[in-house]
Design goal:
- The chain is mainly alpha-helical.
- The protein is built from four helices and no strands.
- The longest helix is centred in the middle third of the chain and has 28 residues.
Length: 101
Amino acid sequence: MFEKNGRKNAAAWTATVITGNQNAKVDVRVLEQITEQLITNDCRVIEESLGIIASTSNPDTRASRERLVQDRLSHLRTLVPYADKKQAKDIKEVEKKCRLR
């Protein structure tokens, strides 16, 4: 069931992906769904932001999107221990895109 060592610690996983009641008992399938959604959304926001950064001439827009990219990358890195193989690959690909720009 668990592919990563991080997934063996359900309490830490829950604390990483769920805000609010950190002591809640959450089904592993729910954690997997939340993790998938968070990774997908972060990757999408990063890719959209990279496009905006590349096309905008507004320095304020560029700066705010740069901060957003850094925030989302930081968040993605907290999810790596709980990512499955496909998700880990998606994270690596978006990190590579960020390095290439």
